[in-house]
Amino acid sequence: MKDSVLEIKELVAGYAERVLIRNLSFLVPEPSFVAIIGHNGSGKSTFLKALTGQIPYQGQVLVQGQRLPQRTGAIAKTLSYLPQKNNVAFPVLVRELVVMGLFRHKKLLDHYTSADYAQADSVLHHLQISHLSNRTFTDLSGGEQQLVWLAQLMLQNTPLVLLDEPTQQLDVYHKKRVFDLMASWVKKQQQTVLCITHDLLNLLPLQGYLLNLSHPQPTLEPLSLETVLAHQQLLENPLP
Ligand SMILES: Nc1ncnc2c1ncn2[C@@H]1O[C@H](COP(=O)(O)OP(=O)(O)OP(=O)(O)O)[C@@H](O)[C@H]1O
What we know:
Residues 6-240 form the ABC transporter domain. Keywords: ATP-binding, Nucleotide-binding, Transport. It comes from Rufibacter roseus. It holds the Pfam family ABC_tran. By secondary structure, this protein is an alpha/beta fold. It has 2 domains: 1-78 and 158-240, Rossmann fold; 85-157, no CATH class. It has helices spanning 44-51, 72-75, 94-99, 114-126, 142-156, 172-189, 225-235, and strands spanning 6-15, 18-28, 33-37, 57-63, 66-67, 79-82, 160-164, 192-196, 209-212, 220-222. The longest helix is centred in the C-terminal third of the chain and has 18 residues, at 172-189. It is globular and about 50 Å long. The N and C termini lie far apart (39 Å). Adenosine-5'-triphosphate (ATP) binds next to strand 2 and helix 1.
């Protein structure tokens, strides 16, 4: 039997005196898009922090049948992660930041080659942000920075991609484009995408699943007009 791409078994995670994820179990059988939704503070980022080894957890996470290590370094081959806030403390050109997405294929002191830069240029072109290529990253607007991080994530090309509100600062046009882009990662590259979002209406055209962490016992539900609208209504009310 083929291994499922992702299986979460009885995951428990949270902080010192506050368990936020209680006995979460679900299975993603094949490469899929999974929208993680829920009220502010319901534990969405906490869930991704557990998967990325930033906080300890109980339970099991299996990726393609293998237990995901709990150490950040060892996880890097399997998954890429775009946090909600990602600061860069030094002035770096956009093209240089994007090419770093290939770090998994490099040894410590390796230089990036012209073929690597060609790949970086290609994803910048794909995201329609080639004009930002030689700009200093820290001078860009919040939305432009978000698109640059997405370009870097594309170069990482891991089986599992975790994104924490990747469309938060984007305009209406770019929000739609980024949701289309995530759908194409699933379809064309067979990647599994877990995306935290509050943009429920943008989920309507997509195929995949929805996981509402505001629910007392969250489960994967197929994305459809009915499920999205039902959850939108739930989220319009206070956290139970
Ligand atoms: N390091 C920490 N120590 C203690 N509590 C924390 C820590 N980080 C987050 N929390 C708390 O855990 C709860 C869940 O936080 P989390 O960031 O997972 O929520 P979220 O669902 O992603 O919310 P949002 O939609 O606002 O991004 C919040 O109440 C938050 O204050």
